[in-house]
Amino acid sequence: MQTIVAKFGGPAIATPEKIQQVAKKVINEQAKGINLVVVVSSMASVRRELRQFAQEITDQPSKREMDVLVATGAQMTSSLLAMAIQEQGGKAVSLTGWQAGIYTNSTHQNARVDTVDTARLKKHLALGEIVVVAGFQGITEDECISTLGKGGSETSAVVIGVAIGAERIDIYSNVDGIYTADPMIVQQASKLKELSYDEMLELANLGAHILHPRAVELAKKYFMPIVVRSNQSDVEGTLIKGDIEMEKNLIVRGVAYESDIIRLTIGYDSYETASLSEVFSILAEHDINVDIIVQAVIDNVKPTISFTISKDEFAESLRVLESSKLSLGFSFADFEVGLAKVSIVGSGMASNPGVAARMFARLGKEHIPVKMVSTSEIKVSVVVPQDEMIRAANVLHDEFNLAVKVMNQ
User: Fold this and answer.
1) Rounded to the nearest 10 degrees, how much is the dihedral formed by the CA atoms of 246, 249, 252, 256?
2) CA distances from 95 to 104, 172, 335 (A)
3) What is the pLDDT, as a whole number, of residue 301?
């Protein structure tokens, strides 16, 4: 019998009424003759309330105790969904992450899954039950509750799917698939029938928040197909897998954007005092994520290192740099706010030279200044003024002919 893992989160489980709708949907799915494991996250309102409770107790809660506290949110959702399935005549059982056999390392709040013991999951599936698993959590070797960090529920779904040999992972969302751009800012955006793992990874890392990169990386590693589909309507979603069929020979298959980018620049009196490794080692030690990096070394000009960070990490980055100024040996630091990153992604770019030139030419024609550039085999990213972000996304979507209704071909 075919086995599918379905993940529900966010808007799909925001209220008891919506949980009842999910119950109806999963009962109908099971009725198609499949074994079904459902992974759920916590309600956003409950998650916020749990964190607020902790803040009212202490300004510095231990990571271990926060894992114990926050894990209860998804446990509540899994229990409510199991009740709703039973109320509608289905057979269901709820399991916590550790009851589902998810064993992790001991890094609280950002644990990594080591193994999954599938015995209990398979026992319940053999009984014809829909197994509802609390996502985002597991248990350490010394039997402490752990949570998996950002993208934890999607990660739970993928590792369970891999462990039990599922046919695929269905990610139910408030969108009905992956689009060539965010339909909220690009009206001509079209839904894609398929995406490769690499394309989805780039889009996820570049600002498309439908899937977390960590879950996509795991799916790619174990060749686990993922379908992103609607939690509101029964329509075809977007399949994410290894090899894809090129749609209308689209070289570029998606446009992504990320707002609130800050460019930090540090300068040195001489090249001998500049050290890329030391700068980024110190930032990494403080868990500061750096994106686009540009080093300028020109004769008779003081060398500089520029890099981009998110707005949320700006204050911490300045503090770290200032406290390390003597050891790093830089003479000045500057920053620029009000920036955004706009990117084009497509696996066809690897075998089609000239895509970047075409991108720059169109932005130049539209008088949109490009402040920094980053490339990989299947993507090109540019940093532009934030007030030009939406226009840049739209003109690039138009430049690469992404307005075709690819799902209707």
Assistant:
1) -60
2) 16, 20, 48
3) 78
Shortest CA distance to 257 belongs to which of 406, 404, 386? 386
> Alpha helix (H) ranges present in 110-224?
119-126, 152-164, 197-205, 213-221
| CATH 3.40.1160.10 domain extents, the chain | 2-174
Can you read off the two tokens belonging to residue 393? 């996304």
pLDDT, tens only, 248-303:
567 899 999 999 999 999 988 876 666 778 888 999 999 898 999 988 877 777 88
Q: Which of 294, 341, 286, 273 is nearest to 314 (CA)?
A: 286
Residue 264 dihedral angles phi and psi, to the nearest 5°: -105, 135
Q: Show the tokens assigned to 323.
A: 């406290």
CB 211 within 8 A of CB 200: yes
- Write the burial class of residue 317 (CB in 10 Å: 0-12 exposed, 13-18 middle, 19+ buried): buried
Domain 255-408 architecture: 2-Layer Sandwich (3.30)
Contacts of 181 (CB under 8 A, 6+ apart): 189, 254, 255, 256, 393, 397, 402
* Rounded distance between C-alpha atoms, residue 123 and residue 197, angstroms: 32
Portions of the chain given CATH number 3.30.2130.10: 255-408
pLDDT band at 246 (very low <50, low <70, confident <90, very high): low
Judge whether 150 and 109 are in contact, CB under 8 Å: no
Q: What stretches of 43-151 show up as alpha helix (H) in DSSP?
A: 44-57, 63-87, 119-126
Which has the minimum average pLDDT: 124-128, 241-245, 322-326?
Answer: 241-245
- Total-model pTM: 0.85
Whole-number percent of the chain with pLDDT over 90: 72
Q: Does domain 2-174 have CATH number 3.40.50.150?
A: no
Q: Hey, what are 162's tokens?
A: 């891999």
pLDDT at residue 407 is higher than 70: no
Sign of the dihedral through C-alpha 369, 343, 319, 51: positive
pLDDT in tens, 142-172: 999 999 998 899 999 999 999 999 999 999 9
Helix (H) or strand (E) holding 365: helix 355-365
Neighbours of 364 (CB within 10 A): 11
Beta pairing class for 2-8 and 34-40: parallel
